[in-house]
Amino acid sequence: MENEYDYDVLYLGSGHGTFDGAIPLAAKGFKVAIVESGLIGGTCPNRGCNAKITLDAPVPLQRQAEDLQGIVTAPVALNWSETVKHKHDVIKGLPDFIAGLLKNNEVTVLHGHGKLLNQHTVDVNGQSTTAAKIVIATGLRPHHMDIPGSELAHDSSEFMDLKELPAKIAIIGAGYISLEFATIANAFGSEVTILMHGQKALRKFHQPFVEHIIADLEKRGVHFVRNAAVSRLEKHGMGTTVHYAGNKAVHVDWVLDATGRIPNVENIGLENTGVEYDKDGVIVNDHLQTTIPNIYASGDVIKKSQPKLTPTAIFESTYLMHLLAGETSAAINYPAIPSVVFTSPRIARVGVPVEEAEKSDEYTVVKNNVLDNWYRQVTRETFGENALVFDKAHHLVGATEVSEHAEDVVNSLLPAIELKLKPEQIERIIHLFPTISSASWELL
Ligand SMILES: Cc1cc2nc3c(=O)[nH]c(=O)nc-3n(C[C@H](O)[C@H](O)[C@H](O)COP(=O)(O)OP(=O)(O)OC[C@H]3O[C@@H](n4cnc5c(N)ncnc54)[C@H](O)[C@@H]3O)c2cc1C
Ligand SMILES: NC(=O)c1ccc[n+]([C@@H]2O[C@H](COP(=O)([O-])OP(=O)(O)OC[C@H]3O[C@@H](n4cnc5c(N)ncnc54)[C@H](O)[C@@H]3O)[C@@H](O)[C@H]2O)c1
C-alpha cells in the first residue's frame, strides 16, 4: 500500500467490526492502527452478547428444572449478585485478551476519542495520525427517549452492572433488549412491566411465535402494556413514576430505556471529509466504501438492511480485510444471517420470513410441532413450534423456531440454506444421534 502515511489502514473503534479483520490484515504485513475511546473489544464482549448470555445462563436451567419437576427438585433459586459477580469474572479478561492478540500482530492501539480532520488524518488527544485507508467502525449507543424526566431511566449496560436487582422494574420498548432483560429480571424475582410503543413486540420475528413468548412471560408475572405512549418520568420517593397512555402511571424502583440503539456518527469529523450518513448510519456502497473512496465502514455503524449483530460485523470486517489486502475486488455478498432473541424459550430465525413466504407462490411453508420429535420428551419440553420455508425445488430457504433449543436448530440448518443443499446431499449429512441437530434435519 501507499507509504506516505503513518499507517496503511486505521480503524475508528475496536469492536468486532474491526478486530476480526484488523488482526489478520496486520498478520499479512500491513501497518494497522486502531483508535478506541473505551474498552478494547467494544460492545459485544464488554456490555453486549458475552455479558448478557452470562446473566441469562441460569434461566434455561431453572426452566429445565421446572420441566423435570419431580425428577429434579424445583424451583431452582437464582442468586442475582453472585451471577453479576460471575459475569464480571468471565468477561473482565476479554479486553486484555483482545489487546494481546492485537499486540502480537503489531497492531498499534491509540487510546482516546478519534476525530477525522480530513480524509487521511485522524485527531486523537490532539495528535494527528495519517492513514491511506480509514475504516469507520464506531458502533451504536443507546437511544434516550426525548421526554421530561428521561434522565431517570437507565440503559442496558447499567442493568448488567446492578449489584442488587430492583424489586419493580419498568422497561420501555419491546425489542431484543427489552424481552431478553425482562426474561432475566423476571427469573431472578423482579416484578417487570413492559411498556410497548404499539401492538407488536420483536417486529422482525414471526408474530405467532412472539405472542407465545409474551403469553409465557405473562404467565410468569410480567405485565405487558400495549400502545403505552410513555409521556414523562417523575421521581417518586426512592423510585420513579412512569406516566403513560394519557393519565395512567406505574411506580417502579428502576426504569430501563430499551427504545433502540443509534449510530455513533456525530463528533467523529464526518463533516470534515464529506462522508455521507443519516440517522441509520454511514452510507456505503456494495464494497463497504463510503462516499469518500479511501474511507470504509464496518459493523453496526453502517446503514444497512442486514441485522446489526456481531456475526454481521465479523463478516464485514473479514470481507474488508480481503478487500484492503487486495485479495478480492468483488462486492460483499452476505450469506443468510440468522438472529435469535435469548428469551426462554428462545425465538430464532433465518432466511425468507414465513409471512413473506405465505404471500408468494414461490414457496411452501411447512409448520411443525417440535414436541412430536421423541428427543424433546427426554427433557420434557413443554412447547416448541417451527416453520420451514422451501422453494419450488425443495431447497430450504428459511426457518424459524420458538423453543428452548431454537438457536441450535437454526444454527444446524444454516448449511442447508446457504449451500442450497439438494435432497440427495442432505441424505449424506450424518449427525450425531440423539441430538437437536439430528432431530431438526429429520424435518428436511
Ligand atoms: C445488550 C446487548 C446485547 C447484545 N447481544 C447480542 C447477541 O447476543 N448476539 C449478537 O450477535 N449481537 C448482540 N448485540 C449486538 C452486538 O454487540 C453488536 O452487533 C456488535 O458489538 C457490533 O460491533 P461493532 O464493532 O460494529 O461496534 P461496537 O462493538 O459497538 O464497537 C464500536 C467501538 O467504537 C468505539 N468508538 C466509538 N466512537 C469512537 C471514537 N470517536 N473514537 C474511538 N473509539 C470510538 C466504542 O467505544 C466501541 O468500543 C448486543 C448488543 C447489546 C447492546
Ligand atoms: N440477541 C441479540 O442478538 C441481541 C440482543 C440485544 C441487542 N441486540 C442488538 O442491539 C440492537 C438494539 O436492541 P434494542 O432492543 O435496544 O432495539 P430494538 O430496535 O430491537 O427495539 C427497540 C424497541 O423500542 C421501541 N421504541 C422505539 N421508540 C420508542 C418510544 N419512543 N417509546 C416506546 N418504545 C419505543 C420499538 O418499537 C422497539 O420495540 C438490536 O437491534 C440488535 O441489533 C441483539
UniProtKB/TrEMBL annotation:
Keywords recorded for this protein, A-Z: FAD, Flavoprotein, NAD, Nucleotide-binding
Question: Which amino acids does the record list as binding NAD(+)?
Answer: G173, A174, G175, Y176, I177, S178, L179, E180, G260
Keyword NAD listed: yes
UniProt keyword NAD, yes or no:
yes
Disulphide bridges = C44-C49
Q: How is the cofactor bound?
A: Binds 1 FAD per subunit.
- Residues engaged in binding FAD: G114, D300
FAD/NAD(P)-binding domain residues are 7-315
Q: Name one GO molecular function term.
A: nucleotide binding
PANTHER family attached to this UniProt entry: GLUTATHIONE REDUCTASE (NADPH), MERCURIC REDUCTASE
Q: What is this protein called?
A: Glutathione reductase
